[in-house]
Amino acid sequence: MTSLSKDPAHPGAADEPLLRVTGLRKSYGSSVVLRDLHLEVGRHRCVTLIGASGSGKSTLLRCVNLLEEVDDGQIFLDGKDITDPRVDPDEIRSRVGIVFQSFNLFPHMKVLDNITLAPRKVHGVPKDQAEAEAMELLARVGLRDKATARPDSLSGGQQQRVAIVRALVNKPVLMLFDEVTSALDPELVGEVLAMIKDLKSDGMTMLVATHEMGFARQVSDAVVFLSEGSVAETGPPEQVLGSPQDPRTQQFLRRIIEAGRL
Amino acid sequence: MAYRRSRTIRSGWIAFASTLIVVGVLAALVMTSEGWPRFRKTFLKWDYGWEVFPQILDGLWLNVRLMVVCEIAILILALTVAWVRTLRGPVYFPLRAAATVYTDVFRGLPLILVLFMLGFGMPTLRIGWLPSSPLFWGCTALVLTYGAYVSEVFRSGIESVHPSQRAAARSLGLSHGKTMRHVVVPQAVRRVFPPLLNDMVALQKDTGLISVLGVIYDAVLRAQIATSQTYNYTPYVVAGVLFVLITIPLTRLTDYISRRQGWIGGGTV
């Protein structure tokens, strides 16, 4: 069986984490979204970001994918500062996959064309080869028969799985997940989380923003609690979720429990 | 079932009768007016109309060809201008500014003034390498004026594509250009298809305005010449009817496509 993720062939320093964020700041106008944020994700690790809406989870992920320009601070991918203006953002983006809350599939393209767009138009992979690879991945996630379907004829869970496959064909070294199950009906959440778990066991490095505390507990190597744009607490899941030290984490988890989500 | 059918038949009869009455009253009103016999002689002299019909039809064929050629040029110009206006970054400022000034100016200028200025003005300049044919400058006037309108249609389509589509494409490593070409513009064009067809219908009849340059023998100029020979206006009526006959199928096609798009999820198909 082929692996969903290909092992990165980038020889960074052995002890350098794949992703290192230092002193990150980001504001939109007068509202400060990220303030002096520090974070590390080691190779083959899954780090989960939790925190209230507006705590900066999405903005952090968008900064790592260079979809947002940072105001200050550095983001190192494989030891290389990707916030350097001389870095080609398209090259970085094609090595860092991101999956969005609202799927963002291209509605005017078939599922297969959604997936092969980047390989064909960015990496110059011949159509036949790109489609063969895409079909193989679709088959792995049980969506082979949906290859010629339009995205809007798929269920939310299926669309999100296609979006994950679309990010994976670029053979990213790092995957970012931005609340990918928040827009799904409850019965569809499982199939998407299962796919992310498979990726984890294949050794993919991941940074996952989520409200699924069960998932955070089971899958992640570390949980990072964000509050007002900086890291309030970080540690192994059982510690952050089981016996949180910071009062803000305690309050957040209390609300989650009251809402019946833990 | 039978009841419903009888209701439908009854509705049909009512519509028929009410139409008959409305048309009858209007016709009676017009035909009993004092000037009617004279109006009829000047505008509805069918034997003269039939006599000039072949020339006008021949002129109309020129209008149709002009429409097709101009439409292609307009679409290319308009899409280019709309595209330029989406470019970000200080380097592109001159291009963006030029595109903005162009749309502002040509949306404001009456088409007939542009026709006069280009059709009579440009050949007067006697710039050797520029064509001096009024046909060329007449078409240019149409293309420039309609290009400004259509570019705004394209731009509104481009801006209606949700930013998350752009983010998704950029996140896959597609450049701005490739994102526009493969993701944004295809969706934008689908959305603005009905207004585009509408502009095409308008263009079809506005090709008749080229006749003001006096040397392009399209349907309107042919009608004008025929009229000036006899002081009978029937040729204009013939030309008008022919233009309507051409635009009706185009309008119906527009409606059909809009409706079909409306049926399939928010016009994004």
Write a brief caption for the model.
The complex is a heterodimer of chains A (262) and B (269). By secondary structure, chain A is an alpha/beta fold. In chain A, 35% of the residues lie in helices and 23% in strands.
Itemize the secondary structure elements and their pairings.
The complex is a heterodimer of chains A (262) and B (269).
Chain A: E1 19-28, E2 31-41, E3 46-50, H1 57-64, E4 72-77, E5 80-81, H2 89-93, E6 96-99, H3 111-121, H4 127-140, H5 156-168, E7 174-178, H6 186-201, E8 205-209, H7 213-219, E9 222-227, E10 230-235, H8 237-242, H9 247-258
Helix pairs in contact in A: 3-4, 3-5, 5-6
Chain B: H1 2-31, H2 36-43, H3 46-86, H4 93-108, H5 111-125, H6 134-160, H7 163-171, H8 176-206, H9 219-230, H10 234-263
Strand content of chain B: under 5%
State mean pLDDT of chain B (0 to 100 scale): 88
- The structural class of chain B is mainly alpha
**Alpha-beta classification of chain A:** alpha/beta
Shape of chain B: flat
Structural notes for this entry:
The complex is a heterodimer of chains A (262) and B (269). Chain A is α/β, with parallel strands linked by helices and 262 residues long. Chain A has two domains: 14-95 and 174-262, Rossmann fold (3-Layer(aba) Sandwich), CATH 3.40.50; 100-171, no CATH class. Chain A has nine helices and ten strands. Chain A has a six-stranded mixed beta sheet with strand order 6-7-8-3-9-10, sandwiched between helices. In chain A, strands 2-1-4-5 form a four-stranded antiparallel beta sheet, covered by helices on one side. The longest helix of chain A is centred in the last third of the chain and has 16 residues, at 186-201. Residues 5-11 of chain A have low confidence and may be disordered. By secondary structure, chain B is mostly helical. Chain B has one domain (37-267): MetI-like fold (Orthogonal Bundle). Helix content of chain B is 81%, strand content 0%. Chain B starts with a helix and ends in a 6-residue tail after the last helix. Mean pLDDT of chain B is 88; it is low at 263-269. The chains are: A alpha/beta (262), B mainly alpha (269). Chain A binds chain B through residues 62, 65, 67, 90-91, 93-94, 97-98, 100, 102, 104-108, 117-118, 121-123, 150, 152, 163, 166-167, 170, and chain B through 164-165, 167-175, 178, 182-183, 186-187, 190, 265, 268-269.
